[in-house]
Amino acid sequence: MNTLKAHGKLLLSAEYMVMHGAAALAVPLTRGQQLERIRSQNRKVFSWKAYYDEQPWFRAEIDPSNLRILVSDDPEKAERLRELIAACIEMMPSFQQELFRWDVETRLDFSTQWGFGSSSTLIALMAEWAEVNPLDLHFLVSEGSGYDVACAIADGPIQYRLRDGSPHYRHVPFRPPFADRLYFAWLGTKQPTSAHLKEVRLKPGFDTIHFFSELTRQMIQCGDAEIFGKLMDEHEKRLARHLGMERVSALRFNGLPGQVKSLGAWGGDFVMILSGTGEKELIKYLNQEDIHVIFRYNDLVYDRANLPH
Q1: What's the CATH code of the domain at 233?
Q2: How many domains does the chain have?
Q3: Nearest-CA neighbor of 7 among 94, 120, 91?
Q4: From residue 200, how far is each of 173, 232, 240, 247, 267 by CA, in Å?
Q5: How far apart are CA 67 and CA 49, in angstroms?
Q6: Handedness of CA 147, 148, 154, 155 (dihedral sign)
Q7: Per-residue model confidence as pLDDT tens digits over 120-160
Q8: Which of residues 110, 137, 171 is at a domain's end?
Q9: Do 113 and 235 sit in the same domain of this protein?
C-alpha cells in the first residue's frame, strides 16, 4: 500500500503532568496526515513535497546515499526530516534502500498552526514505512511524552502514562453521552510545546501526579455533564496553581455559557468547551471573542468503535 495515514491528536487531561508520570486522557482525531510513496524517476535524489489544503508548505531534496540536503525551502524543517530519516535507518538499516526507490508527498488535513500533531503524525507514518516501533522512533528523535504518537496509531480514545520513562497506553471507552455539548476551539496562537515545557521547571510531587491521574480516571468514567464540567474546573484550578498561570476562563472567556479547559500548552492551541447553551449562541459568543476555528467533539474525535457499520 503506497498511501499511509495517521491521526492527529488532542490531550484532554494531565497536560504538563503526563511528562512526569500522570495518567492522561488523549483522543485521536478524524483529521491527520497522509504519506504517499511515488515511484522515483531519479535514483540520485530523494524528493519530499508536503501539502496542506492542496497548497505546498514544504519541499526538500535529499541525497539518498549520504542524506545530504540538496534543496529545501526551509532549512530547519529539512534538517528535522533528515534526522528522522537517519533515525529510521539507525533502527532499520535496510530502510535506506527505500530512498532510492521512492519519492514522497504528504498531505495534512489540518493547519500546521493548530497543534494537532504535524510532527507526531509524521513520526508514525515514517515508522510504519520503515517497519519500526513508532514510540521507539519518537523517543529517538523527540523529547515529548509520546502520547501524540500513540494517538496517531490509535483506534479511539486512550489512557496514556509514562512509567519509569516507558510508555504505557490502553484504549478506553470514553464516549460521553453529553458529547454533543462538547466543542474544541482554537485560540489563534500555536505554542511551541518543547520550549514551553522547559519554562515549567516546577516538578510536581507524588500527590499532584496522583491528583491528575485520579482526575483522568474520573473524566473517563463520567457520564454526567454537570459533574464533567466540575472536573474540568478542578483540573484548571489545580494546574493554574501549579504553573503559576492564570486560567484561560479568566483571560479569554469571562461570561462563557459553560465550562472551558485548556488543552496542550497553556496560552495557545485549543480549548475544550462544555456548552451550557445551544450551538448557535455558543458560536456567536466565540466569534465575538475573535475565535472562528471551532469543532464539534463528535466531528473531530476519531473512535472506530462508534463508526457506522
Answers
A1: 3.30.70.890
A2: 2
A3: 120
A4: 32, 21, 12, 15, 13
A5: 16
A6: positive
A7: 999 999 999 999 999 999 999 998 999 999 999 999 999 99
A8: 171
A9: no
